[in-house]
Amino acid sequence: MAMSTLNKISMPLAFAMLAAAAAACSGTGPAKEAGGQADKPAATKEPVDIIFYSPLAPRTVEQFMKERGDDIQAKFPQYRIQFIPYAKGTETADLIAAGQTVDIIMSTTTTINELVKYGLQYDMTELIKKHKYDLNRLEPSLVRFMKEYSEGGMYGLPVSVSTFNLVYNKSVFDKFGVPYPKEGMTWDEVYELAKKLTRTEGGLQYYGLTMSVPHMLNINQLSAPYYDLKTNKVLLEEDKFKAVVGNYARFYQLAGDKAGDMITQWQNVFVKDQTAAMMVYYASFTLETKFDFDWDVISMPYFKEAMGVAPQYTPSYMEIAANSKHKDEAFEVLTYLTSDEYQMKQSRQGIMTSLKNPDVKKAFAQGSDILKGKNIKAYAPDQAALITPKDQLSGIAGSKATSFFKNIVTGQSDINTALRDAAEAARKEIETARVK
C-alpha cells in the first residue's frame, strides 16, 4: 500500500490494513469462473486493493480473513483483499473525513442505514445488467427487502442468512418430567410446556422460555411493522403488532416478580445458569456456543394464523460503496460470494445460504460436528415471514416498543396502555428526527 494512502488514515488503521495485506497473498493469475451466472465480470490484470468495511460491527482483521477473506483472496490472487475494522478512529464518519475509500461494505438489515446516513449507497442495477447477473437465483424475500430499501434499485446482494429457532436444555425437561418440544409446535403449545417448567425448585427460579425482546419484535412471524414511512404512521397499536407483543409477554408474566430479571438475564439463565428450559435466538448461536448440557432444537413455534411461517430472515448483505474506485472488480467478488461454488462450501460448514438452490440447502451442516444428531430441519425453514422495513424511523418506533415492554410484564401497565404510551413517545422522537 502506498504511503500516500496510509497518511490519510490513523496509525491503528494503517497497521490493521497492513496486517490484512500480509495475511493475504498476491499475484497476477486470472480468476476462475465463479459459477452460477450467465456472464462473469471480466477480471482486471492489474493488481488492485479491494477494501472491505463492516460499520457498527467490531470485527477484527483476523476474523474477517477467516470468515471470508482467505477464500476471496485464494479465488482472486490478482487482488489484494483488505479489511478495515470498525473501531474508535475508524468509524464511518472518520473514514469519510480522512478521504479513505472502501469498495465493499458488509451490512445487515439494520446497519445498512449507515450507508444512507453517509451517502455511501450505490445502486448496482447497471452492473447487474452489464454482467447479466441473475437475481432470480437468490432467496426472493432477501431481494424484495433490498429493492424496497433501495427504492427500486439494488444497493447490495445477500451473501448469507440466518433464522431464529428454539433451542432447549434436555436436562431441565428431564428434571421435571416434561416431554421435549416437537417440531411444528404452535406458540400456544410451547406456552403450555413453559407453564409446567416455570417454577421454583431447591431455592432456584426456573424459567420455561427466555428470549431477546428487541430481536423477537424485529423478526416477528406476522411481519407486523413498527412504522409506515409512506403515511408517517406509528403502528405499535395495530392489532397485529399487539398480538405479537401479547404472545411474548405471557412467557415473562409466568415468572411473576422475576419477569424483570428475564429481560436482562435472558441469555445467562439459559447458557450459564442452566435454569431456563428453552431459549429462542439466532440459529447461528448454537453453532458458535459450546453448551455444557445436552440440547437440541426445533423451529421457532408458529402463530396459529401463520402456520409454517418462520421468523423473518436476518440476512447479511454486501454493498459496493459509492466511493469505490473498483466497482467492476468489487462486483466480480460479489458474484463469487453468491455463486453455487462458494455458497455450497459455506452451507456445508453450517452457514445458511442466500440462494434458492435446493442442493445447496440440503448440504447444510454436513461438515459440522456440532450439529450431528441434531434436528437440522430447524435451520432450514420452508417459508419465512416477509421482512419488515428496517429504516431509521422504524428503528425509533421499535426501540420504544422494547422499552415499554417491561411495563407490561412487570404489571406497571396493561398492554393497551403500554403500547399507546410507546407509540406516543415514538411519534415525538420521529417528528424530531424528520425535522433534522
From TrEMBL:
<dbReference type="InterPro" id="IPR050490">
    <property type="entry name" value="Bact_solute-bd_prot1"/>
</dbReference>
<feature type="signal peptide">
    <location>
        <begin position="1"/>
        <end position="31"/>
    </location>
</feature>
<keyword id="KW-0732">Signal</keyword>
<dbReference type="Pfam" id="PF01547">
    <property type="entry name" value="SBP_bac_1"/>
</dbReference>
<protein>
    <recommendedName>
        <fullName>Extracellular solute-binding protein</fullName>
    </recommendedName>
</protein>
<dbReference type="InterPro" id="IPR006059">
    <property type="entry name" value="SBP"/>
</dbReference>
